[in-house]
Write a structure and sequence with these properties.
mainly alpha; 66% helix
Length: 280
């Protein structure tokens, strides 16, 4: 086929090392989960949340194993190519539309977070004006456009995932830094003075008080508050463990994609993700 690598049959030549592929898979999952996991656990409860976390992690491993086998059999480098070769051209177009919508929604969520955090970073390093606000804080959209043009778009336009090994490795370090901050500075232990007898919660990690006593409503529970809480939080947990959306192109770029290296990629990456979430 035109444009494919002659030896492997892939649409792109596999050039990524196993370590680079691991970084790409880990960074495709971490970040969103670290931001949503505290809310998810507060809604699901500690015991039920941990149980659901393990179940979803096993589902993610199984899904990645299926994707690895299908990618290897179809010699595809993208989800669209994989479905097109397995089910027909119409499914390739439908898959491309779904991937674009998923990526767009995810990007919008991250951009909203970035926009709110950029001015806080700038305010930390830059002095405030007479009105008490920094110029960056008054121009959040402009600041976001600059970051998008200088950082996000160049990384998104790369056709070779190997080029992401530096940014993915850096992102993995930052993710581990977030986990380290939680472990070192979070107020661990129970604060029984602020727990009601009928609250039904067990405090494992006290909310940072910030000069005020923690609210009893913030005490982690063992079980979901209600069915509505379960329905609202469980999709976020599934999203936090969704490695499948990026696995196919990452595995397709892996050098020597043997079953053993594929299994290593799946198990090690998901172990890193699960341990990180369990610590948080």
């Amino acid at each position: 086929m035109d444009g494919e690598d002659e030896e492997s049959g892939l649409s792109v030549a596999p050039t990524s090392s196993l370590s680079a592929a691991l970084s790409n898979v880990v960074m495709a999952v971490l970040g969103a989960g670290q931001l949503t996991l505290p809310y998810v656990m507060s809604q699901l409860g500690f015991a039920f949340g941990m149980l659901l976390l393990v179940c979803f992690a096993l589902v993610a491993v199984y899904s990645s194993a299926l994707l690895r086998a299908l990618t290897a059999s179809t010699k595809a480098a993208t989800y669209g190519d994989m479905l097109g070769r397995a089910l027909g051209p119409r499914w390739k177009t439908a898959c491309a539309v779904v991937v674009v919508l998923y990526a767009f929604g995810t990007a919008v969520s991250y951009f909203l977070i970035i926009r709110e955090q950029l001015h806080r970073i700038a305010a930390f390093f830059l002095p405030t004006s007479d009105t008490g606000a920094t110029p960056w804080e008054e121009n959040k959209v402009f600041m976001l456009v600059v970051v998008t043009a200088l950082v996000v778009y160049p990384l998104s336009a790369l056709r070779d995932l190997t080029a992401l090994r530096f940014s993915s490795s850096l992102g993995s370090l930052f993710a581990l830094y977030i986990t380290s901050v939680v472990c070192l500075y979070a107020p661990w232990g129970a604060d029984r003075h602020h727990i009601r007898e009928d609250d039904g919660g067990v405090v494992l990690l006290r909310v940072c008080r910030g000069g005020h006593p923690p609210s009893p409503d913030l005490a982690p529970r063992l079980w979901p508050r209600s069915f509505a809480a379960f329905a609202a939080a469980s999709p976020l947990l599934a999203f936090a463990l969704n490695s499948g959306w990026a696995f196919v192109p990452v595995f397709a770029s892996l050098r020597d994609p043997t079953p053993f290296r594929g299994a290593t990629l799946i198990l090690v990456s998901h172990a890193i993700i699960a341990v990180n979430y369990l610590i948080i």
